């Protein structure tokens, strides 16, 4: 199990997601924040391993 | 990677940013992304902008545009959002927050440099800009571009 978490940590380290940027599994929270702040949702579609 | 990182940072000024992994998240987009998917092109990274609830597509921004001039892409998006907002609430006077004459938008000075700021007040000589961090800055109208000066005078 430790290997699993290490692997996740390794892949995410390739692209450090800045604080305040949501991930797709947090989409409901992002929608709520966007609605509350009257801002659009901006999806950055990318492969952290290559781009 | 640099383009993606820059996109995360630049577009946070305009919207609520969500990272979508091209290998795992392509099927999880809300409905509005389909409206603008084609405009995003075929090369990642690309950006999709939707309404706050994800139901309506607003803009698709391709890698070429992001790579070319990302700040310009952000400015264009802001203009489009402001325009859409005015169009959708033309009969409303509530689109500008209380205490402001104009919501945050781009203003250009006589040297061609731009800032993003809201307008709090205007007198004969100066305009009070509210910067994105909340700081209020007084700026001489005479130093603005003709276009920005005219737009600000029209706010009075």
List its traits.
heterodimer, A: 51 residues, alpha+beta, 45% helix, elongated, disordered N terminus, B: 156 residues, SH3 type barrels, two-stranded antiparallel ribbon
Give a structural overview:
The complex is a heterodimer of chains A (51) and B (156). Chain A is of the alpha+beta class and 51 residues long. Chain A is 45% helix and 16% strand. Chain A starts with a helix and ends in a 5-residue tail after the last strand. The N terminus of chain A is likely disordered. Chain B is of the alpha+beta class. Helix content of chain B is 31%, strand content 27%. The termini of chain B are far apart. About 4% of the residues of chain B have low confidence. Chains A and B meet through strand 1, helix 2 and strand 2 of A and helix 1, strand 1 and strand 2 of B. Strand 2 of chain A pairs antiparallel with strand 2 of chain B.
End-to-end C-alpha gap of chain B = 45 Å
Structural class of chain A: alpha+beta
Which range best describes the helical content of chain A: under 10%, 10-25%, 25-40%, 40-55%, 55-70% or over 70%?
40-55%
Using the alpha-carbon principal axes, give the shape of chain A: elongated
- Structurally, the number of domains of chain B stands at 2
> Which value, in Å, is the CA radius of gyration of chain A?
14 Å
- Give a quick account of the main beta sheet of chain B: strands, pairing sense, barrel closure: 4 strands, antiparallel
**Percent range for β-strand residues of chain A:** 15-25%
The description of the largest β-sheet of chain A is: none
**Low-confidence region ranges of chain B:** 89-94
Over the alpha carbons, how many angstroms does the gyration radius of chain B reach?
18 Å
Structural class of chain B: alpha+beta
| Distance N to C terminus of chain A | 28 Å
Count, helices of chain B: 4
Strand content of chain B: 25-35%
